[in-house]
Structures are given as structure tokens and as C-alpha cells.
Design a protein that fits this description.
Elements: H1 3-21, E1 28-38, E2 43-54, E3 60-66, H2 77-84, E4 93-98, E5 101-106, E6 118-126, E7 129-130, E8 132-136, E9 139-148, E10 152-163, E11 172-173, E12 181-183, E13 189-190, E14 192-194, E15 197-199, E16 213-222, E17 226-229, E18 232-233, H3 236-239, E19 258-268, E20 273-276, E21 279-285, E22 291-297, H4 303-323, E23 331-336, E24 341-344, E25 347-350, H5 356-376, H6 384-402, H7 412-424, H8 440-462, H9 464-478, H10 485-496, H11 501-509, E26 516-526, E27 529-538, E28 546-552, E29 557-562, E30 580-582, E31 592-598, E32 604-609, E33 624-626
Parallel strand pairs: 1-16, 22-23, 23-25, 29-30
Antiparallel strand pairs: 1-2, 2-10, 3-9, 3-13, 4-5, 6-7, 6-10, 8-9, 11-12, 12-20, 14-15, 16-19, 17-20, 18-19, 21-22, 24-25, 26-27, 27-31, 28-29, 28-32, 32-33
Length: 628
């Protein structure tokens, strides 16, 4: 093992050790896999050895493995869901005419035996003793030969036979852009067991949760193929294909038709790879000496875009490091493959034939997942908004940062998408499991957009500087710990001093909406002279503190801030150059709030609630009032 690999393993293991010594515990895995891929029929055989460390206080009598490939079979739960959901993923269906009616037919439903995906398991043993293993759809249920006691280890071994499905969703063969092998969710993967219990979710549609550990993987494949994926290539001077050291001479065995690629990935919770005979492979140095790999098809129409992407990704990684925390690994790979953009350990599979702006957006988003899904790693099946939403938040910040023309509020399109979801009446609470949304679109808006607004709106609540500090502290305190929604809330509370339980509850656990309005404005000629009396009303269920901007006819402006009583907090003035008056707090139970503005010296022209537009008020039309 090279020196830099030893350093990486040590530093990541230390981080994990710190997590284990805190109130959080988590399981640990060490995988060794040897796989032989037959590129003629897209079938592969493998052997897996898994050392499983039970750091929990529980005695385990059963374990579970994910067999994701089995979803791509007629009659699977994924197939059934495609046939029943109102708005199936367009990539996963064919449009078929039945008379004058066009219907969307599941592509899985019509797969032939040589097109399906499968993972068949045999010879399962625990510490050399045969254990009972039963396949139930995409889950392998294992009754152990002996219980795993708390704070002990055991070794599982098994053989597996797999077939790569036709590319339908995430993994597969021969995708729309001609990439031959997109090998995601391809191996028997042990399910996560944590303080909540087992997370052996069937593979229906959504994303994943996993156990951190070390992956030692050898893949034997036709020597013409170029691979990219998770981990560090251990035998790069035997492999070549752009991985070799500068000046190294790569000599392949004369009589061998295959090469064995040896990868080692420390402290990750997944292992993914892709392969194609026509990949070009570039390596660019990123921040902190991280190698950024770019693997893309040798297609003259896309090469310019992929070359232009490379310096942008150096900029983006530098921004993420500064905004969240340092990327802890020493490589990341952008690989053309898959069916859109999907994050994996130390890499992404992404489509790459489109316009540059689209490729840049996809790469920026997927790279951002490294921090939230692969280093923090909240449970994306249960809390997809924590990963997709937070990733979207830093993505928009990053793209705005490198844009030629920056915008003051890069989140406005995100808010508009959320408002449309509310108007549709199809919103479900963010506590809904990712697979159990009634439709795909509400899932996407809730996870990506409403999840992003959780952080953008937090800027409105506690201030931009406090949110920036919160993100950094959240990353430092919870990396490699699988944080829950309460952890991001408590981090923001610790940073700001605000009480935010109401915010986590209303925003993520209900579909309560924010709607404040200016109910009445009148001029009062009282004993103190001319006053403008302003009455606000809370129409929606969800409470908020209120920022108000008053604009005068002479062009001057001043702001007023109404704290929310249940927050027990006063936000710093977001615009120090502008005069701000802090008013008395507003208790949620009071539907209205009245205050006075001295109008003796100046005449009011306009009153606006939330000029920043960071508060997700679903009816903007009652947020401003012009005096005529």
C-alpha cells in the first residue's frame, strides 16, 4: 500500500474511532471481493468475505443483505410500483399505444431472461459454518449459525452469481450514451443496523443507507476495458489506461486476455465502478492534492465540454471544502455512465452528452453529495431531504459563486417550485419514507427543493453567518456518524442560541404553510403626532419571526424586526447599513400583531414583509402595501 493510502486509512479510521467513543455507535464492515466479469453475456461471478463488527449493545441473531439487481425482474416490487404510480419515471417506462390511448408500460415488465438483473447467493457461511440464507425479492435474510454478541466480530463468506440488467435505473449495461457497464448496487451489500434497528428496505425506487467500512475489491475483465470508480487503484502500473505513474512503462502479459483491477476504498459505505472500451481518462489535481479523475467516451462532440468541466470542478471542490469542510479522501471520479446523475463513494455516474451547463450542474450536484451522503450519510430512505436538499443548497451557492453574474438570492427558483407543490395539494410531510410518496414529483420537490429551503430559510431565521457556522459544525461533529434531523437542528441551536424545535416540527413533520399578510394600514393623528398604524396577520399555521421594510417617499428605508416568542432569539441585523428597530415579540397564538411607525418627519410609500424573500410565504400578494 502506498504511503498516501496509509495516511488516508489512518485518518479516516481515527475519525470513525472518535464517532464510536461518543454517544453514537455504529457497525463496521471489511469487505474482500474477487469478481470475474464476462463482457459477452454481462454475467459475473464473485466471492465475498465480510468481517462484520457488532459495535451495538444488541445480540444479533439475523442479518440482512441487499440484492439490488433482483429489482430488475418482471414481477418485482420495482416493477409493480412502476405499474401503479401515477407519474412513473420516464426512463423506466415505454409509451405504448392501445387504440387511441397511450399508456406508460414498465420496461421491467417486458425484460427477457438475458436482460434481467439478478444476484444469486450460494455457500453462505459464518466463521466457516453454514448459515441459512433465504432470498426475498431484493433482500437476503440470513439466520445466523451463532449469535453475534455485542462488541464482537464475525466473518461471513459467500459466493455470488450476477447478471447486469439492461440499463433502466442507475445501474445497468449499454446506457443511452453507449457506456457498456454502469456497475452500481451490483454486489451483496449488508444492510445497516443502528440505534433504530435494521434498515433492510426493499429496492423499489429510492436511495440508500449503508455501513461504513473498507472495501478490497479485485475485478477481472477484458483488458481492453477502462474502469473508474470508488477507491484507489492498487496496481496502477500494471493496469495503465491513464492511471500509471508518469514515465512508467506498462507491459501486459502476452497470453492474457484479461486484467485484474485491484481497488481499495477505505471508510466508505458503498463501492461502485463503471467500464467501457472507449473511455478517455484525464486526471487533474484538485484542492489538498486530491486527484480528480474524468472518464468519458471518446466522442468528438463531447470532449470539449468534458475538458472545460475539469477546472470548474477544481473550483467547486475548493468551495465545498471552504463551505462545509475538507473532503477527506484523495480521489474523486466523474464517470460518464448511468441514467442521469447519481452519487456513489468517491465517484459519480453521470450522463455526459448534453450541453455544458447541464453537465456542469449535474457534476456540481453529485460532487456535493460526497459531503452529505457519503461522509455525513444520513438515512436517505427515511430523510431524503437531508441529503438531496442540503446538497442542492451548496450546489446553488457554488454555482452562484463561480457565475460571471451573481444573484443576491440564488434560491428563488427553488422557492417557486415549492409554492407550486403547495398549490397542487399533493404535498406530503418530509417524514414520509422516500418510497411511499403517492407520486414521484411531490417526492422530488419535497426532497430537493423543500429540503434546500430548510437551510435557505434558516438564514432568514438565525442569519446567514450563523447558518455558515452551523454547516461547518454539523460536518465536523457528525461526519461518519449518520446524523438524524434532530442533529442538524441541535447544531443550529448550539451555534445561534435560538430554540428551533418548532421549525423542525412544522417544516419537516407537517405540511403546515407560512402565510403572513399586511391586514391593515391607517394613519393615526394622536397626541404624539402623525403615526402610521400597521396590523399584520398570521394566516398560515406555521409561525415565523417577521422582517419588515418600510420605504419612504424621499427614497430612504428602514427595517423593523418582530422576534418569534417561541424562538427566544433576536437575529442580528442582516443589513447593518440600514436602521433597524426591534419590536416586541409575537406569540403564535395571537393571529394579529399591531405596531406604529412615526410618520411626523417622513411619509411612508411602501411596506414589505420579508424583502429578502427567504421566508417561504406561500401567498406573496398580501406581503406588500403601497400608500397612495
Amino acid at each position: 500500500m502506498k504511503k498516501f493510502l496509509l495516511i488516508s486509512v489512518f485518518s479516516l479510521s481515527f475519525a470513525n474511532g472518535f464517532a464510536q467513543s461518543s454517544e453514537y455507535w455504529q457497525q463496521h464492515v471489511d469487505y474482500k471481493m474477487d469478481v470475474v466479469m464476462n463482457v459477452k453475456n454481462y454475467q459475473y461471478k464473485g466471492k465475498q468475505k465480510l468481517v462484520y463488527t457488532n459495535n451495538s449493545p444488541d445480540t444479533l441473531k439475523r442479518v440482512y443483505y441487499h440484492l439490488f439487481n433482483n429489482a430488475f425482474q418482471p414481477g418485482s416490487e420495482m416493477d409493480a410500483r412502476l405499474q401503479s404510480i401515477k407519474d412513473p419515471d420516464a426512463r423506466m417506462v415505454n409509451k405504448v399505444k392501445h387504440g387511441d390511448t397511450e399508456i406508460k408500460e414498465s420496461r421491467i415488465k417486458t425484460l427477457k431472461p438475458n436482460e434481467i438483473g439478478y444476484l444469486n447467493i450460494s455457500n453462505f457461511k459464518q466463521d466457516g459454518i453454514t448459515a441459512s440464507a433465504k432470498t426475498v425479492g431484493t433482500i437476503l435474510e440470513v439466520t445466523l449459525a451463532k449469535p453475534i454478541l455485542p462488541h464482537s466480530k464475525t466473518t461471513f463468506t459467500l459466493d455470488f452469481d450476477g447478471q447486469v440488467p439492461v440499463q433502466i435505473r442507475r445501474s445497468g449495461r449499454n446506457n443511452a450514451e453507449g457506456v457498456e457497464l454502469s456497475m452500481a448496487q451490483w454486489y451483496p451489500k449488508i444492510a445497516e443496523f443502528d440505534f433504530e434497528g435494521w434498515h433492510a428496505d426493499p429496492y423499489i425506487a429510492r436511495e440508500f443507507h449503508g455501513v461504513w467500512g473498507n472495501f478490497d475489491v479485485k475485478i477481472s475483465i477484458d483488458k481492453e476495458y477502462v474502469l473508474g470508480g470508488s477507491g484507489y487503484l492498487q496496481n496502477k502500473n500494471e493496469i495503465g489506461h491513464g492511471y500509471q505513474d508518469t514515465g512508467a512503462s506498462v507491459v501486459y502479459p502476452k497470453n492474457s486476455k484479461t486484467l485484474t483491477w485491484h481497488f481499495y476504498a477505505p471508510m466508505v459505505h458503498d463501492f461502485t465502478w463503471a467500464a467501457d472500451k472507449n473511455y478517455l481518462h484525464d486526471i487533474v489535481k484538485g484542492p489538498n492534492n486530491v486527484d480528480l479523475h474524468f472518464l468519458y467516451k471518446n466522442n468528438p462532440e463531447i470532449i470539449e465540454n468534458w475538458k472545460a468541466l475539469q477546472p470548474k470542478m477544481v473550483q467547486i471542490m475548493k468551495f465545498y471544502n471552504k463551505t462545509v469542510g475538507d473532503y477527506p479522501y484523495k480521489q474523486y471520479s466523474f464517470i460518464q455512465g448511468g441514467d442521469g446523475g447519481m452519487e456513489y463513494a468517491m465517484c459519480t455516474l453521470m450522463l455526459g452528452n448534453g450541453k455544458f451547463e447541464g453537465i456542469l450542474g449535474t457534476a456540481t450536484h453529485e460532487l456535493g453529495h460526497s459531503w452529505f451522503q457519503h461522509i455525513l450519510a444520513s438515512n436517505e430512505s427515511k430523510h431524503p431531504w437531508m441529503d438531496e436538499g442540503f446538497t442542492s443548497y451548496i450546489e446553488d451557492l457554488a454555482l452562484n459563486e463561480i457565475a460571471e453574474k451573481k444573484t443576491e438570492n440564488p434560491f428563488l427558483p427553488t422557492y417557486k417550485a415549492y409554492y407550486k407543490l403547495v398549490e397542487s395539494g399533493k404535498e406530503q410531510p418530509q417524514t414520509t419514507h422516500g418510497d411511499r410518496y403517492d407520486e414521484n414529483r411531490p417526492y422530488s420537490i419535497s426532497s430537493y427543493y423543500k429540503g434546500e429551503i430548510f437551510l435557505a430559510q434558516l438564514e432568514y431565521l438565525i442569519g446567514k453567518e450563523n447558518v455558515a457556522k452551523t454547516l461547518k459544525k454539523y460536518f465536523q461533529d457528525f461526519k461518519f456518524k449518520h446524523p438524524t434531523p434532530n442533529d442538524i437542528k441541535r447544531t443550529a441551536e448550539r451555534v445561534s442560541g435560538a430554540n428551533l424545535d418548532w421549525y423542525l416540527t412544522d417544516w419537516t413533520q407537517t405540511t403546515n404553510t407560512i402565510d403572513y399578510g399586511i391586514k391593515d394600514v391607517r394613519v393615526d393623528l394622536g397626541y404624539t403626532g402623525k403615526n402610521t398604524v400597521i396590523t399584520l396577520e398570521r394566516i398560515g399555521r406555521m409561525p415565523m419571526p417577521i422582517d419588515i421594510l418600510v420605504e419612504y417617499t424621499d427614497g430612504t428605508k428602514e427595517s423593523f424586526y418582530i422576534p418569534l416568542r417561541m424562538m427566544s432569539f433576536e437575529k442580528e441585523n442582516p443589513n447593518p447599513a440600514q436602521k433597524r428597530t426591534i419590536l416586541g415579540d409575537w406569540a403564535w397564538a395571537n393571529p394579529t400583531y399591531t405596531f406604529w411607525v412615526d410618520s411626523n418627519a417622513k411619509t411612508i410609500k411602501k411596506i414589505v414583509i420579508d424583502p429578502s424573500e427567504l421566508m417561504a410565504d406561500v401567498k406573496k400578494e398580501n406581503n406588500s402595501f403601497e400608500l397612495k
